[in-house]
Specification:
It comes from Aphanomyces astaci (Crayfish plague agent). The protein is 28% helix and 22% strand. With 203 residues, the protein is an alpha+beta fold. Strands 1-2-3-4 form a four-stranded antiparallel beta sheet, with no helix packed on it. Strands 5-7-8 form a three-stranded antiparallel beta sheet.
Length: 203
Amino acid sequence: MATKPKAPAAAPPSTAALDTAFGTCRNVDEFEKLNRIGEGTYGTVYRARDKVSGEIVALKRVILHNEKQDGVRSLIDTSVFLVFEYCEHDLSALLSNVHRPFTESEVKRVLMELLRAVEYLHAINIIHRDLKLSNILYDGFGRVKLADFGLARETGFPSPTSMTPKVVTLWYRAPELLLGAESYSSSIDIWYTDPIRQETMAM
């Protein structure tokens, strides 16, 4: 009696397949740390130089929180490095250095670029939840770049799951957050843009 041949074992995913799914993985030793430029709840950011291309980048060391549990294998190395384009200034620091409020045309340009970024996030069902001056960066061409997605969440309209109202600096919070709502929509991001407008014109 003929036996059915065994199916060949599935090959592990190729490097190309992993790169397509997660982006190119490189050794962190290929980057030279120049100086630390920021630190927060989820990690530390360094200004770094790509030793291969010579490009200046932002290198973020993300700390993964590892909860130990009996019977569950523990994660030993909880460090992951992410490479971002480097932006010289954030809006808060820039306003502090120029010692003058933005002109009306400058504020309009900042808000227009910020709202375009927010519109894109909302189109893919992401709420940023932490819009403020220090999370709005300027690249070398003076373009606005939205950063720091540590509090961002995927959501529907309205949010299908409960979320904490304790997000963003207190003075930026939308009314529903101040009232302790645990279910809210992407409209809270739109609310944040007005305090940002007021700060850029008042400083």
